[in-house]
Specification:
single chain; two-stranded antiparallel ribbon
């Protein structure tokens, strides 16, 4: 029996709640499709930082490196200054594990209403592929004359051909496995040097994919076209900052951050990839059962797909979509089901759902993720362990 070994960082706020729901669904999929899961939990996040003064140390990184894949719930806490956890944990792991590609699907599922008129499941199924380790997120910065009228801040951005190529190559592979359309999103009329590098890499890599149709959209224009005409796009490849922004916009189109999945992907398979919902920790509703776990479950489905479990991933996706369509709302008390209850509903549906209920599996992102995977799992069993508790 195939076995997969997961490292789990539930994190802060609603993170533990949505992660527990996602793991319940993964266990149901493992039982139905005949593979094993080990889930080892790591005590990392705000509480760990406030208790120890450390966000992530070398030993933590090496423990996490040993897993086949990682699941992350959410990080962020009002008691911790902005950037400490985000840079110290999420960005640090992305860099340490060469998770150079961020994958953020935006698919509107049947029965789930979009707040944008005219958007339907038939015309809204795209993927934002975001470079994940560079740009303004890696460039650093400085401030001089702080606290005076002459205060001046400089924030640097870094763009390298190597990281850009790795992201663009993955985006083309994904587009070739889907609908053969790729859009570069940047701001080449203002960010001239970085934009020119992105354009040249897309041109070079695109020569190896003659069947993939290419176009270009400025980042500001994307904020107009994406919500009004999402069917225009299939795979959108972009830099770190633009990808962060437009993927949140795309999430709004499909029903909100509670249904928006994410993957921090190592396309070379040299270290584990990390899968997380793109929403934050929402400390104001933590512990109340108001968080929709769909984004965490969809992220776990992407994880299973990356590990080669295509049918299990498709079943998790289809089961989650079916439950979402039955909810009276997508967030808060108006859902009339708690976070844990929704997890149980999806897990039960996984046992019987047809993985092809959402259409031709060959056209799905889950199938494309299986095709893109470059590493295999290691041994494990269906149990949840606790590790690294300070």
């Amino acid at each position: 029996m195939t076995a997969h070994d997961l490292g789990v960082i539930a994190g802060d706020g609603i993170g533990p709640e949505v992660t527990a729901a996602a793991l319940a669904v993964v266990d149901a999929a493992a039982e139905r499709f005949g593979f094993e899961i080990t889930a080892t939990h790591y005590d990392l996040g705000a509480e760990h930082y406030l208790r120890t003064g450390s966000v992530l140390d070398t030993a933590d990184v090496e423990w996490l490196r040993a897993h086949d894949a990682l699941l992350l719930g959410a990080v962020g806490d009002p008691r911790v200054p902005p950037g400490v956890l985000e840079r110290g944990l999420i960005v640090a792991l992305r860099v340490a594990f060469r998770q150079s590609v961020n994958i953020r699907p935006a698919r509107l599922y049947p029965g789930v209403p979009s707040p944008v008129a005219g958007v339907t499941p038939e015309n809204c199924d795209l993927v934002v592929v975001r470079e994940n380790t560079e740009g303004l997120y890696a460039g650093g910065g400085s401030t001089v004359h702080a606290g005076t009228p002459n205060a001046t801040a400089v924030q640097n951005s870094i763009t390298t051909a190597a990281a850009t190529r790795e992201c663009v190559e993955f985006a083309f592979r994904l587009a070739a496995a889907r609908r053969n359309r790729l859009t570069l999103c940047h701001k080449t009329n203002i960010l001239v040097e970085a934009g020119r590098l992105w354009e040249s890499v897309v041109e070079e890599v695109g020569a190896d994919y003659p069947d993939v149709e290419r176009d270009y959209v400025h980042a500001d224009a994307m904020c107009l076209h994406l919500p009004l005409h999402p069917g225009r796009f299939d795979v959108v490849v972009t830099d770190n900052l633009f990808g962060d922004i437009i993927s949140d916009l795309a999430a709004t189109v499909i029903g909100g951050l509670g249904v928006a999945a994410g993957a921090n992907f190592n396309p070379r398979g040299t270290a584990p990839s990390m899968f997380e919902p793109i929403h934050g920790s929402a400390p104001d509703i933590a512990g109340r059962g108001y968080a929709n776990p769909a984004a965490a479950i969809f992220s776990a489905a992407l994880c299973l797909a990356s590990l080669g479990e295509r049918d299990a991933a498709l079943a998790c996706e289809a089961a989650t979509a079916a439950v979402l369509a039955e909810l009276p709302a997508l967030a808060g008390a108006e859902m009339r089901a708690s976070t844990a209850e929704i997890g149980r509903l999806v897990a039960a549906r996984v046992a019987t759902v047809n993985p092809g209920d959402l259409g031709d599996p060959r056209a799905s992102l889950m199938s494309a993720m299986v095709a893109a995977r470059m590493r295999t799992g290691s041994t494990g069993s269906v149990r949840h362990e606790v590790a690294r508790s300070e």
